[in-house]
């Protein structure tokens, strides 16, 4: 008689509760032994295990069929058409009609080869339609549908289809690139099944279902758990991580809890191969709900804007500022004519609080400001010159272009070597005179120093050291000595990187 495999014990440990885990161990043992019946015959002792499951046992709760039956009618497949420019492959070099080789069959590979041959002038560009697929879900009986912005971005035609495969034209009500959400509208012949957003946030370990249109296959259901919350995948907003299978085409589809309520909108996957590896990200439902409400009212999302560039405060920056702990966000640049500039906020101000809300880091600040209405007035508590101050700021409207936040990204000319090195061994770097009146140049960085660990590189320009503007290497040395005399654990530098990006870096004193 064959020995019963030990692997079912490992499978059974994935059960959600202890009681279900015991039943799963029995079920898994039957399933795995049964899978081996093809080659080894039936084991006598395996049959009784099947009878142990009766209606009403905890194992029945592992079926999601009833939930799927309720929610699936509200999930749609989305197809879009975009106009893209492509080279006219039907024409030969110089744009002349392609004549081919006399007598060569039309389907011969050489025909395609000659059409693709490069030419000096290039073939004329033509507008060609390109189709893409995604997912979405109904949020109101009269036909409002939520999806991802990247699903419909640039689309000239949008169609949605339900389980009955009937395609319906949809119009784009509004989009929000910052959360990658979009709202569509269709005109249904009858009221639609609509989904509601969950009233409470999920917990790590909760079961979730993902429904969507992977690879254009149509309505597909997968199950998994919430793997993590508050994931940072870029931007100020947090994402929920799930391990339910999500693939291309699932974008814009919903993630449900076991109540059938939407807890997130599937947006992105992490994959070295392009396919599902069990790491997917969804926009949390509380964020989706706020964005959808604004899109439905006016087609756009209004966000507050402070008009600053900010960065996190690490331990060394906190020490150089005289802060007791590394919390808040420090201003590295103030936009000209922006709300912060008008209110008198300055570079090196550490923002500790917005109204009554403490600020943890730069992402927390960006999210807090974005969630406030444009043109609202807020109290900004800052740390300036080793003391707290409160500044009233009337927020602006968040610009639509990234350039408004990122500034100039043109590459800088390399700095010229003008000699006059000053070696700051305690910091692990050397500086020399710069090409103009503004700043001095980093001429050398010890690869084992704190300066190197913090990203300072040869060619970076020091604009300020401590609180002083520097125009010579000697100014930097004086600022370092002053920080030492004041007993500060670190000295702060304003570093200008290539592309006009300015960052604040604090380097511990006495290390190199």
Structural summary, described in words:
This protein is of the alpha+beta class and 512 residues long. It has four domains: 7-62, no CATH class; 65-88 and 124-299, Thrombin, subunit H; 304-406, Pdz3 Domain (Roll), CATH 2.30.42.10; 422-508, Roll (Pdz3 Domain). A hairpin with a 2-residue loop joins β16 (350-354) and β17 (357-358). Residues 1-54 and 401-419 have low confidence and may be disordered.
Descriptive key words:
512 residues, alpha+beta, Thrombin, subunit H, Pdz3 Domain, 4 domains, 6-stranded antiparallel barrel, disordered N terminus
Architecture (CATH level 2) name of the largest domain: Beta Barrel
- Give the low-pLDDT segments: 1-54, 401-419
Termini separation: 70 Å
* Number of H- or I-type helical stretches: 14
Helical content (DSSP H or I, runs of 4+) = 10-25%
Q: How would you state the average pLDDT, rounded? A: 77
CATH class of the largest domain: Mainly Beta
CATH topology of the largest domain: Thrombin, subunit H
Number of domains: 4
Categorize the overall geometry: elongated
Structural class: alpha+beta
What portion of the residues fall into strands of 2 or more residues?
Answer: 25-35%
Blueprint of the fold:
Layout (H helix, E strand, L loop, with lengths): L6 H6 L5 H18 L1 H4 L6 H4 L14 H7 L3 E13 L21 H7 L9 E14 L5 E4 L1 H4 L4 E5 L5 E10 L4 E5 L21 E6 L7 E12 L7 E4 L11 E3 L5 E8 L10 E5 H14 L5 E2 L2 E5 L2 H7 L7 E6 L4 H5 L6 E5 L2 E2 L3 H9 L6 E8 L2 E8 L1 E2 L5 H4 L15 E3 L4 E5 L6 E6 L4 H4 L7 E5 L2 E2 L3 H13 L4 E7 L5 E7 L4
Antiparallel strand pairs: 1-2, 1-4, 2-3, 3-6, 4-5, 5-6, 7-8, 7-10, 8-9, 9-12, 10-11, 11-12, 13-20, 14-15, 15-16, 16-17, 16-18, 18-19, 21-22, 22-23, 23-24, 24-25, 24-26, 26-27
């Amino acid at each position: 008689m064959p020995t019963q495999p030990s692997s079912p014990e490992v499978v059974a440990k994935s059960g959600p509760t202890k009681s279900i885990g015991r039943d799963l161990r029995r079920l898994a043992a039957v399933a795995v032994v049964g899978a081996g019946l093809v080659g080894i015959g039936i084991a006598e002792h395996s049959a009784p295990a099947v009878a142990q499951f009766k209606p009403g046992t905890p194992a029945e709760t592992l079926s999601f069929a009833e939930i799927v039956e309720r929610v699936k009618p509200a999930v749609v497949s989305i197809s879009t058409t975009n106009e893209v420019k492509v080279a006219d492959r039907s024409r030969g070099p110089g744009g002349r009609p392609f004549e081919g080789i006399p007598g060569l069959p039309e389907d011969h590979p050489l025909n395609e080869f000659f059409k693709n041959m490069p030419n000096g002038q290039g073939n004329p560009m033509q507008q060609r339609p390109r189709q893409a697929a995604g997912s979405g879900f109904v949020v109101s009986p009269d036909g409002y549908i939520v999806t991802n912005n990247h699903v419909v971005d640039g689309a000239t035609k949008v169609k949605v289809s339900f389980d009955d495969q009937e395609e319906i034209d949809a119009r784009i009500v509004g989009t929000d690139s910052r959360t990658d959400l979009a709202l569509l509208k269709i005109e249904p012949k009858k009221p639609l099944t609509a989904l509601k957003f969950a009233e409470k946030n999920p917990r790590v370990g909760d079961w979730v279902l993902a429904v969507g249109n992977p690879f254009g296959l149509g309505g597909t259901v997968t199950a998994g758990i919430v793997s993590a919350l508050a994931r940072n995948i870029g931007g100020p907003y947090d994402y929920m991580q799930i391990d339910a299978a999500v693939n291309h085409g699932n974008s814009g589809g919903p993630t449900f809890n076991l109540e059938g309520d939407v807890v997130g909108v599937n947006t992105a996957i992490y994959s070295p191969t392009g396919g599902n590896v069990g790491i997917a990200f969804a926009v949390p439902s509380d964020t989706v709900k706020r964005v959808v409400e604004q899109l439905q009212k006016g087609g756009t999302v209004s966000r507050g804007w402070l008009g600053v560039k900010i960065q996190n405060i690490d331990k060394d920056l906190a020490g150089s500022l005289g802060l007791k702990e590394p919390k808040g966000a420090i201003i590295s640049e103030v936009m000209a004519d922006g709300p912060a500039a008008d209110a008198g906020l300055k570079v090196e101000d550490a923002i500790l609080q917005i109204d009554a809300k403490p600020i943890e880091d730069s992402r927390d600040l960006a999210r807090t400001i974005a969630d406030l209405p444009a043109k609202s007035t807020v109290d900004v508590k800052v740390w300036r010159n080793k003391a707290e101050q409160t500044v009233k700021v009337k927020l602006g409207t968040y610009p639509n272009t990234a350039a408004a936040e990122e500034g100039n990204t043109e590459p800088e000319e390399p700095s010229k070597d003008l000699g006059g090195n000053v070696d700051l061994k305690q910091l692990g770097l050397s500086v020399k005179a710069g090409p103009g009146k503004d700043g001095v140049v980093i001429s050398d960085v010890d690869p084992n120093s704190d300066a190197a660990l913090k990203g300072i590189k040869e060619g970076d320009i020091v604009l300020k050291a401590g609180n002083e503007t520097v125009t010579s290497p000697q100014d930097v040395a004086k600022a370092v000595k002053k920080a030492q005399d004041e007993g500060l654990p670190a000295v702060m530098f304003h570093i200008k990187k290539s592309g006009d990006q300015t960052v604040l870096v604090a380097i511990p004193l006495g290390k190199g």
